[in-house]
Amino acid sequence: MFFLPLALPLLLIFFVIPFLMAYLVLSVGSILGFSPFMTLLIYMLILIGSAVNIPIFKLEKKETVAMPERDVFGFKFPDQLFRESKYITVSLNLGGAIIPTLLSFYLLLTIPIEEIYATMVATLIVVFVSKKGARLVEGAGISMPMIIPPLTAVLASMFSLILFNLPFINLAKISFFSGVLGVLIGADILNLNKIKKLRVSMISIGGAGTFDGIFLTGVFSVIFSALFI
Description:
Low-confidence stretches: none
Radius of gyration: 22 Å
Helix content: 55-70%
Strand content: 15-25%
Mean pLDDT: 82
């Protein structure tokens, strides 16, 4: 009985949140035109794939290392500085980068050709905002506020459709594409040169720190866009 106040919130976390997330994903899948089965399959692949990082290349960084003063047979050698090469392995996260990107391009193929131009404009806007909003976090890599990318994706998509005098019927698909690709390019790829400042041996594009920024950007972009369809 003593542990009940603590156990109840834990039960809510472990049982309610997964069901809530599943409902959210099913709603998004329905808006994008996927069946419930296909939506859950994609969601499970993304969750499982989030644990898989595929190395693609290594970045070399130079660090200044100090060798302390040494005493060799009574002779003192002063402190010495030398440059040491270290490497950061850059990986692609299967669930956080590869699958959402493939899904985005699939959705791009389902919209009319004239809306692709609007999609590119919206994506460039999200790339710019993501590049400016991304921050280096020691131990986590590149991170950015969760709410900014999906809101930017929806607003940029609406602006682009209005600019090209197009209807909002595919707003959700355009928002998903511009959100996912915009964050992937703007927050991760364009900031790769900055990760040399971090004391890390591996960085995952779409992985820790930006998994929520890429995958959930797509999810919430669709949800926000549904308010305007």
